[in-house]
Structures are given as C-alpha cells and as structure tokens.
Amino acid sequence: MDTAERTENTGEEATGRRRWNRLRLPRWSRRARRVRRITLGVLFALLLPLLAAEVTLRVNYTGDPAEGARTRDRDALWLGHAWVDGRRTDADVTALVRRLRDTGVRDLYVHAGPLEHDGTLPKSAYPRARWLIDGLRQKAPHVRVQAWLGDEVAPEKPYAMHLERPATRAAVVASTRQILAAGFAGAHFDLEPLHSGDRDYLALLDSLHRVTRAHGAVLSVAAHQIDPLPGFHSFWGTVTGHPKWWSQAYFGQVARRVDQIAVMSYDTMQPMPSLYGGYVAQQTSLALEATPDSTDLLMGLPFYHENRFGHWARAETVPAAVRGVRLGLSRTDADRPAFGVALYVDFAATEADWTAYERDWVR
C-alpha cells in the first residue's frame, strides 16, 4: 500500500471512530454539551453590552470640566431626624450654621416623617421643628428649611402606601398643609420605590403643588435615576422585579410638576470611581435635558460610606461624583443657573466628604 492509500485509509478510519464515539456518547452528555453552549452564548450576549456600557462610562469620565461649572449657591443637605425629635441642642445649630458658612447650601431637607402608610403624619414626629426653624431663621436667614417626608409605596411594597387610593393622596396633601403650618418653608418628598410611568404620583404632585404655591412654599422631590439605556427600567424590572430607573420622559413629567428635583445619583452598582463618575456625568446630562429651566435640578452626592449590594464606598466617592456632575453640566448646559448638588446625609458625612465638596464644587 503506497503512502497516499495509507493516508486515505487512515483518514477514513479516524472519521469512522469519531462517528462511532459520537454515537456512543450518552444522550445526557450530548444534552449537557448543548446546555453549556447555550448558556455560554446567553452570558456572552448579556456581558458584551454590559462591557460596552462600562467602557462608555469610563470614556465619559475623561476631559476637563468648564471652570464655571461650580456651585450656583442652590445646593441642599439632607438632615436626619435628630434635628426635630429633641436630640439636638442650640450648640448643634450653631455648629451647623458654621459648617454651612461659605458653602453653596441653601436648602435643608429635615427628616420630619416618615408618613404613615395612609398618608397621615403624627405631630409627635417633629416636636422640635419650630425650635429648629426659629434658630436657623435667626442665625442663617438665607437657608430654607424643608420637611423631608417619605414612605415606601405599592405595588412593589404591597403593605405600604397605596397612591392609587384617593383617600391616601388626600391625606398626604393634608399632611403637607400641616407641616407648612408648623413653619417649614417647603415639603420634600422621598417616596420609594416609584415605578416609571406612575400616573397616581403625578396626580399627587399636581395636588401638592397647588397647596405649596398658595402658601408661597417650595415643592421638592427626591427622584430615581434615569434609564442609562432606553427602556432599561423595563428590562431590569422583568429580571429583578425592581425597575429602579425612570424613563427620561417620565423624569421630565415629574420635574415639570415641582419647584426642585434632586436626583438620587448614588447606589449605582458601579465598582470603580471612574465608572461611577462617568455614570454621574451621564445622569447629569440626561437630567438636564429633561428638566425645565423653571425647576431647580440637584444631583445627589454620597456623603455616606456603606458597603452593600449596589453601593461600593470605594467607588461612590464625593470627588468622583463632583467631577461627574461638572463634566455633565459642562457638556450639556454649562450656564444653567437653576442647578446644584444635594448632600446625602449629614449624620454619615466625614470631614473628607466636606473637604472634597468645598474644594471641588464650591471654590
């Protein structure tokens, strides 16, 4: 047998052995291989867009912000419940005023709730509100003290507040009249988790704004983040049961119904400061595009240091957030006056947080 014949026969024998081996493979083994291939394909299809999105965020963090992209003296600070329940003293008020001096903070969101699930607010929740308001009016008359009112909401939290019930919405409006009568300069609402497109929330805001306008007061809300990709809230809601984001269109509908909207631009699941800063830059641009000039837009800064799912303290830092805010502002609407940052939250803030805010945003 010559070489060509031996080669041909050897090839036929090898092909025959492969066919025989395939035939001998158990069905479960062939099925397992198919499952692995399908699983790898699905993972690749999911990870490729995610990788592309992260690269985009990193690129979004590059460049230099405009020099004028700094405080407009319209910033805000969330304050904990200790300021109205008797735990704080006159010395604390003096120290707070000293802290806020030479910053851009104009609004204080003081936790005066939470609201009951039926929308009511016990007056026992804020027994020292008048003391705080009078003290700040005397020592820092340029600062507005707003009542921070919040609750969990249905349908994601079925045991909590049901905004689809007219009686509940009416009770929230009555609670707002109540806190304005107590001396607060405005009402700041943080209702979570609110799903994008919730019409009952919009109806509530319409009713609330009529009340605050009649009292010459401010209506302010804490807002969810905007879809980083079109329709992402729907995808995430299907996968996790928690949509988390709002569409840009819905964000605009909310922004047009209030005097002030503060984006909760933290808890972003980003693992690195550069990715988090790029994400904040993107959120700032999206929010600026959707918010009318008549509404104050504030971007949240993380003045806290928890480590849990969705939030890495090493990534979500004040310097990264401020740089992201300045980049987004510079690229989208650098001269917008009705803009600021909101600091969350006073009782968890460190000296490093305050230093970064003052160095990078105020000065």
Structure description:
There is one protein chain. With 363 residues, the protein is of the alpha/beta class. The chain is built from eleven helices and eight strands. It has an eight-stranded parallel β-barrel with strand order 1-2-3-4-5-6-7-8, surrounded by six helices. Strand 7, helix 10 and strand 8 form a beta-alpha-beta unit. The protein is globular and about 80 Å long.
List keywords for this structure.
14% strand, 363 residues, disordered N terminus, globular, alpha/beta, 8 strands, single chain, eight-stranded parallel β-barrel, 11 helices
Number of helices, counting only DSSP H or I runs of 4 residues or more: 11
Indicate the structural class: alpha/beta
The radius of gyration computed from the alpha-carbon positions, rounded to a whole number of angstroms, is: 27 Å
Q: Main β-sheet, in a few words? A: 8 strands, parallel, barrel
Counting DSSP E segments of at least 2 residues, the number of strands comes to 8
Low-confidence stretches: 3-8
Order of helices and strands: HHEHEHEHEHEHHEHEHEH
Please, what is the oligomeric state? single chain
Beta-strand content bin? 5-15%
Shape: globular
Distance between the termini: 91 Å
Order of strands, widest sheet = 1-2-3-4-5-6-7-8
- What is the mean pLDDT? 91
- Percent range for helical residues? 40-55%
